[in-house]
Amino acid sequence: METLGQFEQVVLTAILALGENAYGVTIHAKVEDLSKPRKVARGAVYATLDRMEDKGLIASWLSDPTPERGGRSRRHYRVEKPGEKALRESAKQAQRLFEVIAGTLGGLAWKPRR
Amino acid sequence: MEAAALIRIWEQAVERLIPPASAAAVLGDLRESCASSGEYVREILKIVPFVIVSQAARHLNTPVLMLQVALIYYCWGELAAALAMPVLMLREAYQPLARPDPQKALRVALLLAFSGLLLFIVMPVWIEGHVAILFTAAPLSLVLCAIRTSVIVSMDRLDMVFPQALSLAQLAAVRDGFLARLRWRRRFEAIALALAALFWPGLIGHGLGLSLAAIYLAAALYLLNGNLFDGAKTALDFIGLRAAYVEEVSGEQQLSRFLCWLWVVPGLILVAGGIVPGLAPEQLISRAVLALLLCFGAGAINREGRGQVQEEISQLSRLRETVA
Q1: Which whole number is the average pLDDT over B135-163?
Q2: Which chain A residue is nearest to residue B243, measuring alpha carbons?
Q3: N or C terminus: fewer CB in 10 A for chain A?
Q4: Pairwise CB contact (< 8 Å): A73 & B43
Q5: Is the dihedral of CA B302, B305, B309, B315 positive or negative?
Q6: How do residues B13-61 score in pLDDT, each as one tens digit?
Q7: Does residue A113 register a pLDDT over 80?
Q8: Cis peptide before A37 (omega within 30 of 0)
């Protein structure tokens, strides 16, 4: 199974959250939102999308061209089954880390649902 | 000047900087999200390097690159190989989304005939034959144009035109047909490679010939691998199936490019190996012309094939689902 890098996790989560409205502009905005306070270069998002598509984690397709985009199509993205699986695994790992940190340091207000 | 007009000017300026595979999506996104030309320029500067590297990596065919660089090294030395490598990698990033324009293709053929032979003239060891070489360029350019035209015409016959919409079952049937044809072709190619491998040690000499035979046999075994294009991704919805099909079409084209160059390598080794200092001008010319023809033929077939696949992928990316 594919192991995700940290930035890949963020981009995949953004696509998952956006559902049918996941394309370059919205994905970048969501990734910035998820990565706060860090700024994210849009180019890095495009490069990650390409890489994840090559790995079969996401699929893309083109919409009809629209005038507000200068007659250009949107490239829409969707998380595929291997992507979902890898994301679940990453979430489980994050949960384990959270439990160790919360158990050791304490004082973390939020606790994920089991 | 208003911001929208300035953005349009910038768009035209940077359109060629962005690899064609990403251009529409990236420029469309920028048009949609940038309010001022200043913001547009800042964004484009941050995006372009990422996109170029990403597309170069995405379209890079490592075995083909290695073969090409090894051939350049064999024919022209280490400096030429080192210089050619980044150029070849960048060329991958900027591959067009469609087949090359026939007029442009023929112009390139003419240019190549003269510049290719000019390259031999500037090499000091063969200075005696330089006038004769120049005379050869004119008829050679006609031959190259004929090769290019025949490749374009033959590829036009293989055009794959998708309708704007297909049902899931129809798309699955198209893909199954593609995979079935591919399996048969790969089997024939594997047999041909294995048979050819037997001849290289005798023809090329033991060291290089054996290495080449080993590469041919490895390629044949790879093609016979049952897991290659096994069509296992059957339980998919329309988007998943379309993505799998695009991946298979693209993978098949990458493999075809490698095989095409693999068939050219022995010929080039034989031709280039015979070019030595003191060679008679007519022998030099015939060998130089042969080397050019081999490289040009392989290049033309690959360019057309790649353009055709890019067109096919573009059509697939826009394909809509209909209810059967």
Answers
A1: 74
A2: A59
A3: C
A4: no
A5: positive
A6: 888 889 988 888 999 999 888 888 888 888 898 899 999 999 999 888 8
A7: no
A8: yes
Q: Each residue of B12-40: b (16+ CB within 10 Å) or e?
A: eebeeebbbbbbbbbbbbbbbbbeebeeb
pLDDT tens string A21-45: 999 999 999 999 999 888 999 999 9
pLDDT score at B226: 60
Contact B315, B161 (CB under 8 A): yes
Task: Give me the residue from A46, A51, A81 closest to B22, CB to CB.
Answer: A46
Residues across chain B? 324
Q: What is the pLDDT of residue B125?
A: 47
Alpha helices (H) along chain B: 3-14, 20-33, 37-59, 62-76, 78-93, 102-121, 130-157, 168-197, 200-204, 206-224, 238-273, 281-317
Does B46 contact A54 at a Cβ distance shorter than 8 Å? no
Which has the higher per-residue pLDDT, B37 or A7? Answer: A7
Asked if residue B182 lies in contact with residue B250, where contact means CB atoms within 8 angstroms, the answer is no
User: Do the beta carbons of residue B20 and residue B95 sit within 8 Å?
Assistant: yes
Mutate one of B50, B59, B162, B312 to test the A interface: name it (highest A CB count within 10 A). Answer: B50
Q: Residue A111 above 60 pLDDT?
A: no
Those of residues 85-104 in B touching chain A at CB distance below 8 A are: none
Kind and range of the H or E run holding A105: helix A81-105
Mutation target vs B (from A18, A50, A68, A77; most B CBs, 10 A cutoff): A50
State the Cα torsion B60-B204-B125-B278 to the nearest 10°.
-170
Q: Do B25 and A72 lie within an 8 Å CB cutoff?
A: yes
Residues from chain A contacting residue B57 (CB–CB below 8 Å): 50-51
B124 falls in which pLDDT band (50, 70, 90)? very low
The answer to whether the CB of B228 falls within 8 A of the CB of B179 is: no
Helix axes A42-54, B37-59, angle to 10 degrees: 20
Question: Are B47 and A46 within 8 A, CB to CB?
Answer: yes
* Contacting residues of A for B55, CB less than 8 Å apart: 50
Is A70 within 8 Å of B11 when comparing Cβ atoms? yes
Q: Does B151 touch chain A (CB under 8 A)?
A: no
Query: For residue range B261-315, what is the model confidence (pLDDT) as tens digits?
Result: 899 888 888 887 766 666 666 677 777 778 878 888 888 888 888 888 888 888 8
